[in-house]
Write a structure and sequence with these properties.
Layout lengths: L1 E8 L2 E9 L10 H20 L4 E6 L2 E6 L6 H20 L4 E7 L1
Helix pairs in contact: 1-2
């Protein structure tokens, strides 16, 4: 199962950590893993590369995390993180048991 943890501070998403495998299909053929990976990378790259918003990013095998330096005050970053959570929620509904989404107060 893929786990997506969203870090919440004062009702604002300030980051996320996504890890694990969906185990929906064989490696290389798993559409759930591919969809989640693509959405996460698009979000992280848009935040840091396109909008030049400062963030701590860690990417290791099967895990990526991002935490905003400004605590979620940038409107663009906030919208992107909310959109990621919504998108992953829709995938979780379509592929039941493949993704767990947690909102963690930090």
């Amino acid at each position: 199962m893929i786990t997506a943890e969203f870090f919440i501070r004062e009702d604002e998403i300030i980051g996320f950590k996504v890890y694990g495998h969906a185990d929906y299909a064989d490696i290389g053929e798993d559409v759930v893993c591919a969809g989640v990976s693509s959405a996460v990378m698009l979000t992280a790259n848009t935040i840091t590369e396109n909008f030049s918003i400062a963030a701590d990013i860690t990417a290791i095998e099967n895990e990526i995390s991002l935490t905003l330096h400004d605590g979620g005050k940038d409107k663009n970053a906030k919208l992107l993180l909310e959109a990621l959570r919504t998108h992953l929620g829709i995938i979780a509904q379509e592929y039941e048991g493949a993704i767990s989404i947690l909102n963690l107060e930090v």
